[in-house]
Design goal:
Layout lengths: L11 E5 L5 H15 L4 E2 L2 H5 L3 H9 L2 E6 L5 H8 L5 E5 L15 H15 L12 E2 L6
Parallel strand pairs: 1-2, 1-3, 3-4
Antiparallel strand pairs: 4-5
Helix pairs in contact: 1-5
């Protein structure tokens, strides 16, 4: 069942860490599933990190970005900063109470928790900074 998480739909750019840990892979899988469910559209964080002009411009132009990092290392956050993008919602999975480890098998309950956090923030149901959901300027749908 597709959930109507926000009227923005494809106007939300989802950028996810895809690191070599459970939280990196959870970030990536959450972005994939949220895209499939119509809650935003996953884009290429590596393209922005590589400073590819079209990717960087897309990140600057989109109405809303949901940046999902697995842990406090903050790769997605650093990539956006280096690209001059400072208007986005920011999620760190370890801040949601998910413990980082090297087990790449995904836990369905943790995946649900990540997706719910992104959906709630997008829909304006969670206050910025609530439940491990820090916000770097910006909001849903402008």
């Amino acid at each position: 069942m597709v959930q109507d998480c926000c009227a923005c739909g494809d106007n939300i750019m989802i950028l996810a860490c895809s690191g070599g840990s459970n939280v990196g892979q959870l970030s990536n899988q959450a972005a994939v599933e949220l895209t499939q469910e119509g809650c935003g559209k996953m884009y290429c964080l590596a393209g922005i990190g590589g400073q590819l002009k079209g990717f960087v411009q897309s990140a600057r132009d989109v109405p809303m970005i949901a940046a999902i990092d697995g842990c406090s290392v903050g790769c997605a956050k650093a990539i956006l900063k280096n690209a001059g993008v400072d208007d986005y919602r920011y999620f760190v999975l370890t801040d949601l109470g998910i413990e980082k480890n090297k087990n790449l098998s995904l836990n369905a309950e943790e995946l649900r928790k990540v997706k719910d956090a992104v959906r709630a923030t997008c829909a304006g149901q969670a206050a910025p900074g609530a439940a491990g959901i820090p916000t770097v300027k910006g909001g849903c749908c402008g």
